[in-house]
Structures are given as C-alpha cells and as structure tokens.
Write a structure and sequence with these properties.
292 residues, alpha/beta, Rossmann fold, 8-stranded mixed beta sheet, 14 helices, 8 strands, elongated
C-alpha cells in the first residue's frame, strides 16, 4: 500500500491515522493545523509537524481532514510546494473534489473520501471504521486509490457524481445529526414527566436501539411501529394536548412534520387495510394551528 500523510489531526484525522497504522500502512507525516494531536495519535510512528513548517510532502497519498472552510486556501498553499503527493483526498462530507482544483492544476489527482460513521473521538472512531461505508468521488486515479484505502481499512466504498456531494451529505446529516437532535427532544419531553435527563436517556435508549435493530433488517415501511401505523387518532390527540405548556413550539412542529411523514410511510407498508384518513386530517389541523 502507499505511504500516507495526513493534515488535520482532530477526531476524524486522528481516527484515520490510528486505523491506518493498525492496518500496517506507513504513515509519513502527521501534520497538525492549530492544536497538537492527542496522545494516542502523537505516539504513532510518524513525523509530527505543524502545517506552517511543511516545505514538501513526499508521500504517495495525502489525506486532508481540516474544516471545510480551510480546504480551498490550504490546497492553494500546498500547490506552491516543490514536492507534492501523487494523490490528494480531502475528507469533507459536503464538498466535492473540485475544492482541490489548484492541486489538480499541478498534476495531482484529487478526490474526496468521507466515512459514513459518527466519530466523536479519535480512538472510538478508529474502532468504528471497519465495516463503515465510505463515499468516494473525484479523478479516476484518486478514486481508485481511495477504494484501495477503504479496502485496507476493511470498509465498503461507493461512488457518486461530484455535483451530488451536498445532497449525499444532507442525507448523512438526517441519518446521524438529526437523529441525535430528535433524541435530545425526546429526552427533554420525557424529563417533563419528572425524570432527570440522564434517567430519561437511560429509559429511552433501549427503545432507540430496538428501532435501529429493526431498521437493520427491514425497510422503514415495515420497521415503523406506533400510533401512526395503527391509525390511532386518539393517541395522537392526547400527545398534542399534552404538549400544551410542556414543550416548546419547535418540538411541537418537529413532532407534527414527522407525524405526517410517518403516516405516509405507514400507508406504503404491509398494514394497508388501516383507515388513516381521520389521522391525516387531525395532523393537518394541528399543523394549521401551529402556523397561525
């Protein structure tokens, strides 16, 4: 496998550095942008250097794991180096390889490599990379090398058109960040019943895990459970009444939008003999009240 350098040693860059080292691949330079890497990354067998001190990068492959807004100016600065890698891959979820065009102008094959896994810590992130899916796109040679790297990390790769990268990233945010935000709203709502937030989290978490387990085996239309599958209008009305004076308007709006989508999902599932027309009308009325 190729020799690799990494710029940006935060959670994602650090996780990849640890995982690449575990896979037996050679790390040349670990380049930090503003803060020193955490000890688990700093002890890896590589030259650790500040980005301002870099005068050449002789690795086969460079991975850039900085914040999105730094990618274009960083690529422009790197393009002035005397020696450049053959392949440069950035790790942004929302930006395509086009942001590295100044390096492409220097004859470098550029692309992007984004792991579809939630990484809140470098060490835990390294543990989660095997079996994860990685979105890759860019120049043909860059995509080929990215796919090799994913295979080395025991992950799975797929490719999309560069122009669709923001749409891909929006889907990823809905499946991860928005789920976390929704779970936070559920904790807050249950805590209104007199529980501590930590207790509410502990109570709700097995339910979340069982839902994820269902989704692993079934499509949403078959995995969905609850009042919107049953067409239980009275349960829905009791929820709306209970919200009064207990939850903020934003939580109420989120609940109603998801209620409407849940009915649409339920109607495409196996329980097609359930009359949900009254429930649909009740949701519409509640939404109109919210909009007034």
């Amino acid at each position: 496998m190729h020799s690799i350098s990494i710029i940006g040693l935060g959670r994602l860059g650090g996780a990849l550095a640890i995982a690449i080292d575990r896979a037996g691949c050679r790390l040349d330079q670990l380049i930090y942008h503003s803060t020193l890497p955490r000890p688990e990354v700093a002890k890896l067998p590589a030259n650790i250097i500040a980005v301002a001190e870099v005068d050449s990068i002789d690795s086969d492959v460079l991975l850039i794991a900085t914040q999105d807004q730094l990618l274009r100016p960083l690529a422009e600065n790197l393009s002035r180096l005397a020696s450049l890698p053959r392949i440069v891959l950035h790790l942004s979820g929302s930006l395509s390889s086009e942001v590295l065009e100044s390096l492409r102008d220097r004859g470098v094959a550029v692309g992007s490599l984004h792991p579809l896994v939630s990484i809140s810590d470098a060490v835990l992130g390294a543990d989660r990379l095997p079996n994860a899916y990685f979105c890759v796109e860019g120049d043909i040679e860059a995509v080929s090398v990215a796919e090799e790297l994913v295979k080395l990390l025991k992950g799975n790769s797929f490719t999309i058109e560069s122009r669709l990268k923001p749409l891909y990233h929006a889907a990823a945010v809905m499946a991860s960040g928005h789920i976390t935000a929704l779970f936070d709203a559920a904790i807050e709502t249950l805590a209104r019943c007199g529980l501590e937030p930590s207790e509410a989290k502990a109570i709700l978490f097995p339910l979340l895990e069982s839902t994820v387990a269902n989704l692993r085996l079934q499509m949403p239309a078959d995995a969905l459970t609850g009042p919107f599958v049953r067409g239980d209008i009275e349960a829905f009305r009791s929820h709306i009444q209970a919200f009064e004076g207990e939850v903020d308007e934003g939580t109420r709006r989120v609940y109603l939008e998801l209620a409407e989508r849940s009915v649409r999902i339920a109607e495409s599932g196996s329980a097609t003999n359930v009359d949900r027309s009254g429930l649909e009308e009740a949701i519409s009325m509640a939404k109109r009240k919210t909009e007034c």
